[in-house]
Amino acid sequence: MIYIGAEVMNTPLGDTTEQNWSGLMENRSGISLVAGAGFSGESIHLAKIHSLSAENKFEKLVTDSLTAISHQIDRAILSSDRTIVLISSTKGALDVNVRDQFASVMETLRANFALVNVPVVVSNACISGVLAINAASNLIKSNLYDHAIVIGCDVLSDFVINGFQSLFAASDQPCAPFDAARNGITLGEGCCAVVLSRSSAIFNEAPLELLTGTSANDANHISGPSRTGEGLYRSVKKTLANNQVQPGDIDFISAHGTATVFNDEMESIAFDRLDMGNIPLNSFKGYFGHTLGAAGVIETAASMQMIRNGALIKSLGFRDAGTSKPLHVVLENEKKELRTILKTASGFGGGNASLIIRKI
User: Fold this and answer.
1) Structural domains of the chain sorted by starting position, each given as residue range(s) with its CATH number in brackets
2) Which pairing describes strands 215-217 and 252-254: parallel, antiparallel, or unpaired?
3) What pTM was estimated for this model as a whole?
């Protein structure tokens, strides 16, 4: 069994997991209108951590997350040669060092936390977070390590904001995943960390079980998903089969839900093909924005909090169904015991990934 726990979250909703959970329960969005942030100096909606200094913010977020993790597990784990740290990110500290956006943070982590092994970077567009968790689990299963710490982090920069504006993919309003009026993503920034281990004894709080997932690439287009949801369909189908889980065993789906016309439609088709359209589903993008390489870890941690607190969280921004295949989008918060959750992610280049979290 692979255990997962000790989740820490730092997002526009707060710099602790408790603050983030309170924000989700209050259906409070971290998205705000940021003056002058657009390419032409226009104001645009972003999920920005306003308290975060512009200087070395990527390194600070990653360091703060690992510090918080150290208080939730046996600290000796950090300096063990049987522990590996994985960083999931699309851009890292690109605004500080365009040649090597991860060099500085790796040096800082090794020096400050006495890491024996050099951290591994997983960067595969927006599936990076889910992919990193699965990769960490596979490293433990292969007996290369006993423990893994996955840190997902991405920060807002002119490069990221202007890039999505150039693709005409950024919404002029806070994003509305799966809604009929959706018209694009809202970018966000944040950092989250989770710990994986073959031992439950290292956690201060009882962990959950990770059912390791899979990835699949539909190779459709550099920035557009398969219109039939093929990659997501294959990933979820294989993840279910590998773990001997039936679609009906899933209590909730944390979907990718970017609020672009093509992504949300593709997901609805994939879930319909999987006979999972009736399962309660949401997108957390209305709360955190699209945090790119951090999204998979942040949204997995939020899903873990849902299991721990026995609650479904409303999909913020959704009002009217906007996909060709019906989805059971969560309309209001609801107290409900959750045992098994599916987390999915999709991204540029045709990447798709999925994993399952289960209450022990």
Assistant:
1) 2-174+187-202 (3.40.47.10), 210-358 (3.40.47.10)
2) unpaired
3) 0.97
Distance CA 93, CA 121 (A): 13
Residue 7's pLDDT is 98
CA angle 345, 348, 352 (to 5 degrees): 30
**Span 113-126, mean pLDDT?**
96
Query: HSE of 318 in the Cβ direction (CA atoms, 13 Å)?
Result: 28
Among 78, 88, 166, 154, residue whose Cα is nearest residue 121: 88
Single-letter code of the amino acid located at 253? I
25 in Cβ contact with 333 (< 8 Å) = yes
Helix (H, G, I), strand (E, B) or coil at 90: coil
* Chain centroid to CA 205: 21
* Beta bridge pairs of residue 340: 358
Please write the tens of the pLDDT for every residue from 71-114: 999 999 999 999 999 999 999 988 888 889 999 999 999 999 99
Backbone phi, psi, residue 114, to 5°: 55, 45
Taking CA atoms, 348 is separated from 8, 29, 199, 357, in Å, by 27, 25, 35, 25
| Distance from the Cα of residue 21 to its chain's centroid | 15
Structure tokens at 110: 């090794």
> CA–CA distance from 133 to each of 2, 42, 140, 202 (Å)?
11, 37, 11, 18
359: helix, strand or coil:
coil
Q: How far apart are CA 208 and CA 305, in angstroms?
A: 10
The three state secondary structure string of 214-253 is CEEECCCCCCCCCCCCHHHHHHHHHHHHHCCCCHHHCCEE
